[in-house]
Amino acid sequence: MDILVSAIVGDLISRSASFMISKYFQQQPDLDKIQQRLQRVLLRIDIIAEEAEARDINNQGMLRQLKMLRQGMYRGRYVLDSLRFQAALDEEQVSHSLSALPKSSAAKRLRFSRTGSGSSNREALLFGTNSNMREELQRMVDTLEETVSCMKEFIFFLESYPRIHRQPYGTYLVLDNCMFGRQTERERVLNFLLCPSVTPDLAVLPIIGPRRVGKSTLVEYVCRDESVRGHFSMIIFFPEGSLKDEGVVDLKGNYINGLVRHQNSASQTRLLIIVEIAEDINEGTWTRLKSLATSMTPCGGTKIIITSRSDRIVNLGTTEALRLDFLCQEACWYFFKSIAFGSINPGEHPNLASMAMEIALEQRQCFTSGPIVAGLLQRNFNARFWRTVAECVRASKQTHRLMFFFRKGHRLSLTSTQTFVCGKMHRCIVGDW
Q1: Same domain assignment for residues 264 and 361
Q2: Of 300, 323, 346, at which residue does a domain stop?
Q3: What is the pLDDT of residue 413?
Q4: Cβ-contact 256, 248 below 8 angstroms
Q5: Which of 252, 319, 320, 310 lies closest to 281 in space, CA to CA?
Q6: Number of structural domains found in the chain
Q7: Residues 81-110: what's their mean pLDDT?
Q8: Helix, strand or coil for residue 12?
Q9: Which PANTHER family does the entry mention (predicted)?
Q10: Is residue 305 part of a domain?
Q11: Are residues 305 and 374 in the same domain?
């Protein structure tokens, strides 16, 4: 009887295994074909986006359409990289399971699946079960292909816009000065500054966003543009906390608590005033600032940019407020990969790419600690160092999480290797948790 039961169970297991293997190999060609379609549509998106970035586009509708195209490109690249590096990631998990941090390594896939909010479809596609992988991937490729097919009018009108001179230099600044992913916002601020005001009143642009989203960085980058410096005779910056009740006395002779960032005597008298506040501004101070700016430039042309974390400054603007939010996870990975690998093809180093993806996804703010970590990885291009950085980032994040729950007096220890790396990096790779 036992022999019969064993034979039946063995036969069932054998049949089940054969069925699963045959089903896998039947689906694999379909997945390969879908990935090839994804590669082709991403190549078309790259061509359109690169050509658009080389043009001086001032149409807000086209800029929004270009932003949607970039978001689709980031998402597609992220999915494609994840599928490519998944095998290397699984191999890394097995080989690393006997290292100093077995629990963290074993939980690598779990942390990937928890990254981001409101992205359950993406998580199920990349790190969930294989039951709906092909369907989700097919749906995403269909969406990207439909997006590209709707760009015919965009491409037609794109040819009517002039090319931007010194485009490679501008692209370099966008990446190295942490302005990656803000091209649409940059163009909108430039249009506000350089285009004549539609009303005789003082033009004010509010920029709203959470802390460390890049409001000041965006304004600083725009102010470095040669066209802006040539348009305004003076750029004055009021940092956060400098505008008190007595903060504005005389813009003409005494710049109380204000910093003169740029002066151009050859330009017509036009002021650009940048005000940085945390929440709200005193009504009396705001009124005096506007009146003094108007008296300084009787011919008009003066403009004000005010940045804040509060929505209360919306009423101060004469145009629609510009709202900034943190970049999506896919864009952060694209940014991190570009710095860490540079001109090297990540596909030639799948193990390093899988570790880089883990490190990138551990960073909540890709513009604060992300460039520092990616720069360290690029200068030390070897698997041992990258694995050490991944362990340090992982352990440091866990330490910062536990600090919110442990009472004062409890100590949390790191291994000597992790402590050394964290010390050498001056805690820069931890980021803001």
Answers
A1: no
A2: 323
A3: 41
A4: yes
A5: 310
A6: 3
A7: 53
A8: helix
A9: NB-ARC DOMAIN-CONTAINING PROTEIN (PTHR33377:SF83), OS10G0134700 PROTEIN-RELATED (PTHR33377)
A10: yes
A11: no
Report yes or no: 273 and 303 within 8 Å, Cβ to Cβ.
Answer: yes
Cβ atoms 171, 53 nearer than 8 A: yes
The rounded distance, in Å, linking the Cα atoms of 228 and 231 is: 5
CA 197-201-204 angle, to 5 degrees, is: 70
H/E element, 236: strand 234-238
- Report the CATH number that the domain containing residue 262 is assigned in CATH: 3.40.50
The residue with greater pLDDT, 309 or 416, is 309
Range 58-72 burial, b when 16+ CB lie within 10 A, else e: ebeebbebbbebbbb
Mean pLDDT of 276-284: 81
> Which residue, chain included where needed, has tokens 């001086």?
56
pLDDT > 70? residue 268: no
3-state secondary structure (DSSP) of residue 315 = helix
Burial (CB < 10 A; 0-12, 13-18, 19+), residue 302, is buried
Beta bridge partners of 259: 237
Alpha-carbon span 238 to 258, nearest angstrom: 5
**Can you tell me the mean pLDDT for 217-221?**
88
Which amino acid does the sequence have at 344? I
Could you give the CA distance from residue 39 to residue 48 in angstroms, rounded to a whole number? 15
Contact 353, 316 (CB under 8 A): no
How far apart CA 303 and CA 194 sit, in angstroms, is 10
- Tokens 């008298």 — which residue? 269
Length of the chain: 433
Count of beta carbons in the 10 Å neighbourhood of residue 199: 8
Q: Write down the pLDDT at residue 122.
A: 39
Dist. CA 221–CA 174, nearest whole Å: 8
- Tokens standing for 196? 């004549």
How many other CB atoms sit within 10 Å of the CB of residue 366? 27
Task: Tell which residue, 214, 255, 249, has the closest CA to residue 235.
Answer: 255
Would you say the C-alpha torsion 143, 149, 153, 154 has a positive or negative sign? positive
Beta-ladder partners of 323: 208
Q: Dump pLDDT digits (tens) for 126-150.
A: 444 454 677 778 888 888 888 888 8
Cα–Cα dist 253/59, whole Å: 39
pTM beyond cutoff 0.85: no
- Where in the sequence is the domain holding 290, given as residue range(s)? 182-323
Identity of the amino acid at 146: E
The CB-based long-range contact list for 19-28 (8 Å cut-off, 24+ gap) reads 27/130, 27/134
